[in-house]
Amino acid sequence: MNTKNGFVLSRKKVAIYLIFLILAFGAYTLFSWPRCSELREIPASVEVRTVPGRAFLGFNTDTDNLKFGGVSPNAEVVRSMNVQYPFDAEVRLVADGALAPWLSMSPATFTLAAAEPQQVSFRLLVPPNVYDGNYTGTVRICFQKE
Questions:
Q1: What is the pTM for the complete model shown?
Q2: Which of 15, 33, 76, 78, by CA, is between 20 and 30 Å from 120?
Q3: 141 versus 59: which is more confidently predicted?
């Protein structure tokens, strides 16, 4: 490739530079990413059902998972839980799966003192034009010992 100032780069050199940049970025990300001392995964679910002429609300009071019960489209459901760990730790919560875009957590990151509970609220906002069905996901709680 010729440029206006006469600087020449071959395609091979450009490819090598790009590969180097990608590898450098990957290595930086891998080694700078915080590690979890322990990772807990909590299954989450919601049943969306349209009932003509009225709102649908089904309760689920199980405490083994993060179950939001049954709701109509365009509904909001709030659940909470206490997070506890036997050591001082930095804590991060991340959701994934089909319901992850609808779920917000507060706080999503916090410092936890050993054996002290921290209440976390989970707010699920179901979109108005979603199809009926069961939607699932996982909330991952990453504990990083201090």
A1: 0.73
A2: 33
A3: 141
d(CA 3, CA 5) in angstroms, rounded, equals 6
| Distance, CA of 45 to CA of 65 (rounded, Å) | 8
Higher pLDDT, 8 or 131: 131
3-state secondary structure the chain: CECCCCCECCHHHHHHHHHHHHHHHHHHHHHHCCCCCEEEEEEEEEEECCECCECCEECCCCCCCEEEEEECCCCEEEEEEEECCCCCEEEEEEEEECCHHHEEEECCEEEECCCCCEEEEEEEECCCCCCCEEEEEEEEEEEEEC
The whole-angstrom separation of Cα 78 and Cα 5 is: 62
* Backbone φ, ψ for residue 100 (5° rounding): -55, -40
Contacts of residue 51, defined as CB under 8 A and 6 or more positions apart, other chains included, come to 72
Please state the rounded mean pLDDT for residues 32-40.
79
73 close to 130: Cβ distance less than 8 angstroms: yes
